[in-house]
Amino acid sequence: MRTAAGVALSIWIVVAYAQNPKSCGRPRIQPVLEDEDRVLGGTEAVPGSWPWHAGIYTNQIYPAHICSGVLISKRHVLTAVHCLTRKTAKMIRVHLGAHLLNRDDTGEMSYEVEEICQHRNYKPPHTNDLIVITLKEEVNFTDTISPVCLPKSMEEAPPKSSAFVTGWGRFEPNSDTLSPHLKQARTKTMSHETCNGEEYDARVPQSILCA
């Protein structure tokens, strides 16, 4: 049994615009996409249709969900630094192939963590907010577990590129209740000029994707 007490909204954005090799970013179980643009609300994902989605949990008998990430290789998961504040490698585990938040799924795998390495230019709260988790053992890729593709160095998503958000989101803005099932949403990227304009009143640095 897994618990999700005190957990913030967990999302991870995957941008589908790069020319990617066949070995990554191609789910064997196809997602069914609708026009919802936020995980708050969102729609339930088809189990196994986002095989790179990773759940990060406390490493204890009754694990609590901390955040989400994406599988990028047989031993590496990418997530956000702010998710793992005051956490060490021994304090967390990574769950792959999960659809249900509070109990284990068929085909779900859990991995101990060897080390975590945050971006050297991270600046709170969100500048270069990236951290790589190295797993203690290699992941066996399956129908429900496989890696996402990463863009090339310095490659940027042009405005209005399709982006997909997955996570166990809240049902309501002021609620702590998370969805028991993995949820998904489709959105579009936007330029930083638009994102930081008066309409949105945001202060988003260039290192953050705006959608």
TrEMBL record:
Residues 1-18 form the signal peptide. It holds the Pfam family Trypsin. Residues 39-211 form the Peptidase S1 domain. Keywords: Disulfide bond, Hydrolase, Protease, Signal. The keyword Signal applies. GO terms for biological process: proteolysis. The keyword Cytoplasm does not apply. It comes from the Eukaryota. This is Putative trypsin-like serine protease. It comes from Ixodes ricinus.
